[in-house]
Amino acid sequence: MSIVGIVLLVIVVLVVLILVASSLYFYRVAVYRQPKAFLVDNPDLQQVLTSDLPIADVPWVEQQPFELVEMKSADGLLLRGFYLPAPQPTTKTVVLAHGYTGSAKLNMGPFAQMYHEQFGYNVLMPDARGHGESEGNYIGFGWHERLDYVKWIHLLVQRLGEDAQIVLHGISMGARPS
């Protein structure tokens, strides 16, 4: 093999190693459960979270008597959700699915308040696997969560009866399984 061939081979190997290493790094940043520095340190996001926008309005959620609801996922994770009965008995229920790196209570409060107060719905806000109070070390981007939401719906049907009317409402990544 000539010197040029060896140099080209070394360059190709180095490029492949760099691509593999960077792919693994970005996979880990996106998928594994951990604080996301690019979100935590984002001054624009901090401005939104401290603004008067409804997304920042979590006191309503904190004042409600949510019941902690737990279930096991098909692969054995303990998943937690928060259930709030409607002001008047009803079988109408909304399941609210939060987005990437979010949590039910932090991100879905304005929607819960709307469905609960304006429409008179029961509200179920699950924390997706790898988020909030649910177990899990990785984020499934809706693939694994789709099966989790089917189980949440079965849980609601057991609780409310076969005539339960269930709405799935998701934002961002939570819209995928919805």
Automatic annotation (TrEMBL):
Domain Serine aminopeptidase S33: 89-175
Organism: Dictyobacter kobayashii
Keywords: Membrane, Transmembrane, Transmembrane helix
Domain of life: Bacteria
Record-given protein name: Serine aminopeptidase S33 domain-containing protein
InterPro entries per UniProt: AB_hydrolase_fold, DNA-binding_regulatory, Hydrolase_4
TM helices/strands, residue ranges: 6-27
